[in-house]
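In this supplementary section we document a worked example of the pipeline. Step one takes a protein sequence of length 323 as its only input; no multiple sequence alignment statistics are reported here. Step two produces a three-dimensional model, which step three serialises into structure tokens for compact storage. The input and output of this example are shown verbatim.
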Amino acid sequence: MINKHNIKKNKIAGAFKANKKQDIQGLINKDDLQKQIELMKNRKGLQTNHRVSRCERRQRLGTPNQMTILFDTFGNGSNSPGIDDNLQVMLRTAVAEVSDISGLMYESSLDDFNEDIDIVEFWFGGYTDSVIAFLKPRVQKMHDFISNPGNTVTFVDARNTVNRVQSVKKCAMPGQAGKYGAVKHIGAGKEDLSPIGEKTYAQVIALYKAEDEVDCDAPGPINHIGSGMRIYLGPKMFDPTTKLEKIMHTFYHELTHKLLHTLDTVNSQTIYGDVQCRQLAKINTGAAMWIADSWAHFMDAFGAPVDEFESDCREIDAWLDNH
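The serialised model returned by step three reads:
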């Protein structure tokens, strides 16, 4: 199902320019071109065989270990009554499924995603050495954390709550507010940042870079340390119509913020949903690799039936071609 999520006709608000035309005349000879054609044919056949067997590959891996899951209320619990048994079951199931899929992603990364090139290309814009070098250690880091029972994630009922700025410092040790600016922190503070709105599924707490700071060594404007592995659940997560797949997607999305320092925005443009993520992948691979929702869709694809993934890809690209 396409999530258009406020797509504009000017395609990501003009944040990037697509290089749609490249002059390749004279760059490859006929022999090289024929080799490329044969490589594409072989790769397509390889992918077809392995895509069909993704489910079998997951089954072959067996039941993986997974991280420990806890549940909590926000603050003193006066505004957040807690996570009921039904949602706890859904969250536990989501983590188990993601752990399973993460195992397949990890296995695929060991062979440079050679069996799943289509997924890499669709959500990150290309299957190149630089893309693989970027994805491999991060896929493995995610799996190492999710599959380790010694690690804990705490789901927090954060309905009817507000996050606040607690402090701003110019430098700090890991786990403290520092050069990235203010720490978005639960508790008393002077400045409201953002209430957890009615349409929010979940969020995590981040360190934000101050507007006047020059960030010399971080890929984006936020760094997710200092608040532990706590995922704050908004009202939409408690909606009984919320599907398991959405919970899985949200869990992986939020965890990439914490572990990989992924972002939700590019040049102040929010990137959510399959259409926006695909659009960004087509015009700026480097930016796509830092977007949390692109990573969540990447995970979704490993768990989706082959026909469903291919159908969704065609539908998304067709929509983009016509808007």
